[in-house]
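From the shared-data thread, chain only:
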Amino acid sequence: MPWTRGGPLTPEHRSRLLAVGADVDAVDGLPLREVTGPLPEWWLANQNTLYLADGASLRADLVASLALYPFSDALLVLGSGTDNVASLLLGGDGATVFLGPDTELTGGDVYCGGGSAVVLNGDVTATRCAIIDARNGGSVVAERGQLWAANVYIATDDMHRLEDLGTGARLNPYGAHIRLGRHVWLGRDVVLTGHVDIGDGAVVGLRSVVRGQKVASNTAVAGVPARLVREGVAWRTEDTP
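Structure, as tokens:
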């Protein structure tokens, strides 16, 4: 799509990205320019902003789907191509999305609700159909060096309220914060939900559920719920003996 390009990333928008977890080197290393058109009339009127890095692509159908209904004060910053992304949706006012350099979400879905943030700081490879869902003021932040196998599901909450019959208190997470450290490997069908912190170099085994847990750096966990399998591990992208 031949987008019309405007000025570079503003200091205000740079500060907003850093505040929600974007890596300063990833942000500053991108030659970002604001997209000024063609966009729906309400997009700019509602103070929404879209930036594309030089060489990054954005399909027109993704823009059409994310603009199904008006919202305001959204910040969408794309440092990688989105040719293979299945959907990119903003679900309310104040959503912030940063897809850093060398990010590949093949058949992936990204949803960011109002006041929420999705930050992929770059070098993220999701092999097939990852779902990233941040809502209700929650956030998903992934540092560089991610490898996610097929059908990974990352969600800040369950999207429905579960409450105690006696007290009416909510029992399940609401707008939680999920962080993945550097060089994390998620196996096939892994689920991360609720407040989750995955340490640097960690491995989460296939079909595991990490819910409201902290996974230490350089450990392997597996199961439902995920439990420690081994400490002191390191993994490589090369499949060698």
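Residues 1-113 form one domain.
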